[in-house]
Specification:
With 103 residues, this protein is an alpha+beta fold. Helix content is 21%, strand content 16%. The strands form two sheets. The protein has a two-stranded parallel ribbon with strand order 1-4. A two-stranded antiparallel sheet has the order 2-3. A hairpin with a 5-residue loop joins strand 2 and strand 3.
């Protein structure tokens, strides 16, 4: 986006603090939110010959073989972030990166 629109016009935040993200978004004309979960093909995951994940220790992934959930919400505080940013009444483009359904 910086290449297309210019680095002086693009602000990025890759963190977990909703307040910080909303503060940046308050000064934006358009807001792009990248939401979703992790990929099961990184962060130290090991895989069997059939492609199934071999869970050993703690993996920072929430999607893929062997990563079941009973919830359809976005991970972490992403629902809170989405709601707070939408409350600014500015155009929002949300990109959901997911390997599972979210509601």
């Amino acid at each position: 986006m910086e290449k297309e629109f210019g680095a002086d016009r693009v602000r990025c935040y890759n963190g977990h603090e909703v307040g910080t993200a909303v503060s940046l978004a308050e000064n934006a004309d358009i807001i792009v939110l990248a939401l979703g979960g992790s990929s099961s093909r990184f962060k130290g995951a090991l895989f069997d010959e059939n492609g199934a994940a071999k869970v050993q220790g703690v993996l920072e992934m929430d999607c893929g073989e062997g990563m079941d959930t009973a919830r359809l919400q976005l991970p972490g505080n992403q629902n809170e972030l989405f709601t707070a940013v939408c409350a600014l009444k500015k155009p929002v483009i949300s990109v959901v990166i997911a390997g599972r359904p979210y509601a």
